[in-house]
Amino acid sequence: MVLVVDDEREAVVAIETALAARGYEVETAANGADAMEKAARLHPDVVVTDLLMPVIDGIGLAKALRANPGTATTRIVLCSGVAEGSVRALFDGYDAFLHKPYEVDDLERALAALRPSARRARP
Question: Is there a contact between 5 and 29 (Cβ–Cβ < 8 Å)?
């Protein structure tokens, strides 16, 4: 399962719709705090998160996921319009980086490389 986290509702809906159409099980969250609760409960294979969000940002979410034994091995894809070098200087514990805006094909390639089991046929 893939947990998509972004405060831009249109972006979340577009990603959720595209991934679901490609056979992924998808859950969504609007900010890092919501995502932490869902990740602890749902144990997603991959968390795809925007960097800049209210409440708890993507780096705060990623650090919290890594610090929690229940989600420490969850794969993390950080997404941002800023350069990856700037992000890596703040936190390097993520598994993949996508520069926004990105294509769904780019996201799907990252998901396939990180966790092939994230893709499950929908009933």
Answer: yes
- Determine the structural domain holding residue 47 and report its residue range: 2-114
SS3 82: coil
43: left (phi over 0), alpha (psi -120 to 50) or beta: left
CA–CA distance, 42 with 13 (Å, rounded to integer): 19
Residue 93, in any domain of the structure: yes
Report the distance separating Cα 109 and Cα 61, nearest Å: 23
Domain-embedded: residue 97: yes
Q: Secondary structure of 21-58 in the HEC alphabet?
A: HCCECEEEECCHHHHHHHHHHHCCCEEEEECCCCCCCH
Domain count, the chain: 1
Q: Which CATH number does the domain housing residue 93 bear?
A: 3.40.50.2300
- Give tens-digit pLDDT for 47-98: 999 999 989 999 999 999 999 999 999 999 999 999 898 888 888 899 999 9
Tokens of 8: 């831009």
Is residue 120 assigned to a domain? no
